Amino acid sequence: MTDDPSQEHISSRIPVSERLFILKDDLSEDFVRASGPGGQNVNKVSTAVQLRFDLAGNETLPQDLKTRAAKLAGSRLTQHGEILLQADRFRTRERNRADALERLLELLRKAAERPKPRKATRPTLGSKKRRLEAKKQRGQVKKLRGRSARPDE
Predict the structure, then answer these.
(1) Predicted structure pTM score
(2) Do 38 and 44 meet the contact criterion of CB atoms below 8 Å apart?
(3) Quick check: is 142 in a domain?
(4) 74 near 99, Cβ under 8 Å?
(5) What CATH code is carried by the domain that includes residue 84?
(6) Over the chain, what HEC string results?
(7) Which residues contact 78 (CB under 8 A, 6 or more apart)?
(8) CB neighbour class for 141 (10 Å; exposed up to 12, middle 13-18, buried from 19)
(9) Residue 127 counted as domain residue
(10) Which tens digits make up the pLDDT trace of 98-134?
C-alpha cells in the first residue's frame, strides 16, 4: 500500500458507469439472519446483508440522477434519503454482499439513463376523418336503439 492519499481515494471509488462512480464511504452494511437456504446454519449465522447507500449525502452523482434513483428506489428509500437493499439469496456473506452491491449499481445505471423527451405531434388529416366517421357510425347505432314507433299511432 502506498502512502499517497490520492491513491487511497481512487481505491475507495466504485464505478457505476464510465463517467460515474460512488464512494465506499457512502455505503454501510449490516449483517442479519437470513431466511431461506442454509439449513440449521440459518439460525446461527448472520449471512443476509442490509446495504445502505446514502443517496442524499452523496456528492459524486448529479442531482437529476439522484432524483430518478429516488423514484426508482420507491419503498426502498428511507426518510433519511438512504437506499436500503437486503440480500439474502445466497448462503454466504460474500455472495450476498456482491449481490446487494450489484443490485444497487444496476439501479443507479438505470437512473443514469435520461428519459427520452416527448415530441408533440399533430394528428394527420386522415386520422381526424377516421375519428369523425367512427363517431358518426357510433351515433347512428345509438340512434337506432330508440323506441320503435307503435303501429296504432
Answers:
(1) 0.62
(2) no
(3) no
(4) no
(5) 3.30.160.20
(6) CCCCHHHHHHHCEEECCCCCEEEHHHEEEEEECCCCCCCCHHHHCCCEEEEEEECCCCCCCCHHHHHHHHHHHHHHECCCCEEEEEECCCCCHHHHHHHHHHHHHHHHHHHHCCCCCCCCCCCCHHHHHHHHHHHHHHHHHHHHCCCCCCCCC
(7) 52, 84
(8) exposed
(9) no
(10) 888 888 888 888 888 888 898 999 999 999 999 999 9
Cell of 11: 481505491
Residue 148 within any structural domain of the chain: no
**What nine digits make up the cell of 73?**
428506489
- Count: domains in the chain: 1
Q: What angle do CA 37, 42, 43 make, to 5 degrees?
A: 150
Is the distance from CB of 96 to CB of 86 less than 8 angstroms?
no
Amino acid identity of residue 33, one-letter, is R
Q: Which residues contact 84 (CB under 8 A, 6 or more apart)?
A: 50, 51, 52, 76, 77, 78
Identify whether 62 is part of a domain.
yes
Question: Which pLDDT does position 139 carry in this prediction?
Answer: 93
- The helix-helix angle for 93-112 and 63-73 (nearest 10°) equals 120
Whole domain around residue 58: which residue ranges? 5-112
Q: Is the dihedral of CA 18, 23, 26, 31 positive or negative?
A: positive
